[in-house]
Design goal:
Length: about 200
Amino acid sequence: MKKIISTTTLLILIMDPLGNLPIFIAILKNINSKRRRLILIREMLVALFIMVIFLFSGENILKLLNLKTETVSIAGGIILFFIAIKMIFPDKKKNNNTKLPQEEPFLVPLAIPLVAGPSVLATLMLLSHQNPQTINSLFLSLLISWIVTLIILLMSEIFLNFFGEKFINVLEKLMGLILIMMSTQMCLDGMKIWLKN
């Protein structure tokens, strides 16, 4: 039981739902309320599916594709960097358009890398490699941490209604700056591991 609690806490901290909350709000702010919830649940289910795959066979998948853990980190960093640039310098034409955007996020960036990011996937692979005999307990921990993250992110609409669109726009630019730093760090971490090997 203690192992499950400690692993769940670890995964929640790595998933960082509170840190991701402003990013989710910013990305989904122009989508209507009902659709926003459906997208959020869909993306979270995709993220859960990917995390479960990496928990049970992530190491084998990377070996099969001849990929290393640092590759996942660098790729995630590059994706986050481009997302951050769009958040800081939004398209003015899109902002002037009163219609809801035709394109909605799918897989990137909400499911990957914001929820099922390189650090979460690497942690799951590491935990399953170190504790193959307790894989069911690890799965339970993953499921609990995913549910907690989902509940927190579903509260994003309350934050949007409470703070208003202007505050969200400012928050979007601020999160863009933070994302640039995060993406740079992810790339650097991946490059450090690659250089050591």
